[in-house]
Amino acid sequence: MLHALTTASLRRHYLFSKLSEDELNRIGGHAQILDLQAGEQLFMQDTEAHHFYQVHAGQIKLSRLNPDGNEKVIEILNPGETFAEAVMFMQINRYPVTATAVQPSTVYAFKSQVFLDIVRNNNDLCLRLLGDMAMRLRSRMHEIEQLTMKNATYRVVRYFMQELEKAGDEVDELELNIQKQLLASRLSIKPETLSRILGTLRDQGLIRSQGKKITLLDPEALRAYE
Amino acid sequence: MLHALTTASLRRHYLFSKLSEDELNRIGGHAQILDLQAGEQLFMQDTEAHHFYQVHAGQIKLSRLNPDGNEKVIEILNPGETFAEAVMFMQINRYPVTATAVQPSTVYAFKSQVFLDIVRNNNDLCLRLLGDMAMRLRSRMHEIEQLTMKNATYRVVRYFMQELEKAGDEVDELELNIQKQLLASRLSIKPETLSRILGTLRDQGLIRSQGKKITLLDPEALRAYE
Fold it and tell me: B21 CB contacts (<8 Å, ≥6 apart)?
């Protein structure tokens, strides 16, 4: 059974954030705290699934055995992350993976049935969970988009700076003669991503771009992108 | 009303992927196809919310008016993306944003009530949706982790290559004297991310690292990370 302090900290996870105090206590009352040694198995692939888990400390590895008998690591879970909750929601009765502690670890084990009963008897809760996850999913997708863009922008500006260096210190405006497609392929980014980046830099007055000619107008400001 | 062809294509989105043929047809039967001109508003902030939407073509901007009357763009949605579904799930009755077409766009409008009725009367569907979203959410988080790592690895290897270039062409093993914390801060990456990257490069035999001394063992192979 979890302490009041622990159940309060569970609220930070999306699975628990929408539960009432009562519901959370019910789940916490059935929860177990498990200590695992490095290398110890929590559950084995294809065994019956009755719990879902949250890593409290340490690191848990999820893996599968390939038909050839080799282990394939599916993922490594860090504190705060839950696992086997999709197994619970989808009401698959067996774990599709093996869970092993990578290092000495503590995990919380929650009874799937208790959680499912709560969600099943509370349609509004199920909808609120869907809403919360829809928002989280969208915000993650935008984070991915931004990271991709940031990474790509870094590459583009790096390329510009290298060309500037070649031209020497006194130059403060430089014309590059390179086709956008060629530049994209050289920097391993998608042509449409490159177009968006060049568009942004153009809107900010940092470059001018016409055909295959790119003019660097403000190297000082461009450097800020590195 | 949507064509059979369109409803089939809806299945690709997580909101529809778990629906039965019948359920999907019910939703499609109540759906509308809306054509918007560039700059045209789809709905205004604080008006009553009865629909959720999917962008079919074009681009939709979601924005809010700040207290000072300035517009703040919340996000730009591209084909395939849905919006206002969290408003539906959370049963908020008003749109918290204004939706405007950035360019000539086509959107599908779905009646929230029809979708909610289906989910409310089908608990298993609600749970399956939760399971599906839980998996998607986790896979997005891992994608973010990988992108962050890829971006950071690129920066680290770039730095190594620059130092190699300074040392001249004949050098094929180079010792760098830089504290890891300093390197991390110079490359704007988290110290723990740098540690993981150096660990990976070390495991692959590409570098040796001891204290503040990093030895580049295999510049050729390191270059592959760029």
Answer: none
Q: Give the N- to C-terminal CA distance of chain B in Å, as an integer.
A: 50
Task: Say if residues B77 and B42 touch (Cβ distance below 8 Å).
Answer: no
Q: Are B68 and B125 in contact (CB under 8 A)?
A: no
CA distances from A175 to A178, A209, A210, A213, B148 (A): 9, 9, 10, 6, 32
Task: Report the alpha-carbon distance of residue B42 to residue B58 in Å, rounded.
Answer: 13
CATH number of A4-121: 2.60.120.10
Give residue limits of the domains in chain A.
Answer: 4-121, 140-223
ipTM (interface pTM): 0.71
Taking the C-alpha atoms of residue B83 and residue B77, their distance in angstroms, rounded to an integer, is: 8
Q: Which helix (H) or strand (E) holds B109?
A: strand B105-111
Can you state the percent helix, strand and coil of chain A, rounding each to 5? Answer: 45, 25, 30
User: B-chain residues within 8 Å CB-CB of A148?
Assistant: 147
- Strand duo A41-43 + A98-101: pairing: antiparallel
Comparing CB atoms, the residue among A89, A116, A127 nearest residue B128 is A89
Cα-atom radius of gyration of chain A, to the nearest Å? 26
The candidate with the shortest Cα–Cα distance to A207, out of A180, A181, A184, A173, is A173
User: Tens of pLDDT along chain A (226 residues)?
Assistant: 676 657 777 888 888 988 888 999 999 888 999 999 999 999 999 999 999 999 999 999 999 887 777 888 888 899 988 999 988 988 788 998 999 999 999 999 999 999 999 998 888 888 888 988 888 888 888 888 888 888 888 889 888 888 888 887 666 778 888 888 899 988 888 888 898 899 989 998 899 888 888 888 888 888 877 6
Is A124–B91 a contact, with Cβ atoms under 8 angstroms apart?
A: yes
**CA B21 remoteness from chain centre:** 29
Beta strands in chain A (DSSP E): 32-36, 41-43, 51-57, 60-65, 71-77, 82-83, 98-101, 105-111, 174-177, 207-210, 213-216
How far is the C-alpha of A221 from the C-alpha of B26, rounded, in Å? 54
**Chain B partners within 8 Å of A136 (Cβ):** 137
Q: What's phi and psi for A47, nearest 5 deg? A: -85, 160
Cβ distance of A126 and B127 shorter than 8 Å = yes
In B, minimum Cα distance to A225 occurs at B188
CA angle B167, B173, B175 (to 5 degrees): 70
Q: What is the CATH number of domain A140-223?
A: 1.10.10.10
Other CB atoms within 10 A of residue A190 CB? 12
